[in-house]
Model the fold of this input.
Amino acid sequence: TLAVPGTTSILLTGGSTGYTSKVPDFLYPASSTCSPPAFPDSRTEHVTFTTPSGLVATCGGRDGPRSGSPSLSTCLVLQAGKWQSDPRVPHLPAVRWGATAASVPAGVVVMGGQENDDRRNLVASTSFVLRKNGSSWEEGPALPGDGAEYSCSVAVGELVFLLGGVREGETSQVRELDTSTWEWQEEGKWPQLGGRGRTMHGCGVLNSQLIVAGGQEYMGGVSDMTATLDLGTRGARWQEGGRLKLARYFHAMVTMGAVGHEKLYALGGYNLGMLDSVEVWGEESRTWREEQERLPKGKGYMGAVAVTEEAVCQKKKEGEEV
Done:
């Protein structure tokens, strides 16, 4: 997602803590003076992002944690202390879950995912674009190949990188979308992810380093693997980094912090149960370190975005807990 200078918190929206519905939103680190408003429905596998104008929004997903839960096309914006519909981020043209989204100066793009309730159908090969100051979603550039779901994307300036996902099986694709022209760059410009594919993983960028961690590998094994790619080095290859302390998938990875002091976090996810642990990437050591502060509850399948407290703050009542 588009980096917000000086972010102080990570907002984790919706998701699942098991088979419960209407999971509370969390701020990480927890705040003693501010709590995010309650999410209005039970959505999971949605996308949460910040628009170029600074709106915090969420779109799509499924209304519930169980397989077969209704798919959603609705978008909500966080404003005046609650989530609500807003014409500045209209609903998607079609239902979409398991998608990935990125925010760049030109707008927001939602890519891939599942198009409807029937998992036997092909995954989505389309994208939707909401241009900066636009009033509706447009059909964006088609995804390379046959589309993908459970991919990961990260924005670097005007560029969006689409990494991995599922088509007929896990894929190792690494593709670049230039949003100055809204065109995909040629295949092979960047090396593919190592191994036999990655899906349901997390990704982020830190000082021109693409970082991919966790997820599921070929044949469904839960992964603790980390790989990094230096975007500033011509001919760079993926390098293996330190493994996650705990293998996980359907987790969140978010870059957050003051300008020049950003850190990359891996939060929650699933591995034989929902996880409450948080890990932070050490740029010099190239290893993960488990943070002492954990999430209030184990949580996965959620949306996540870096924010300032002021963007989401709803003053706590005396004695209230998150």
About this structure: Helices lie at 309-312. The mean pLDDT is 88. The two ends are 25 Å apart (CA to CA). The longest strand covers residues 9-13.
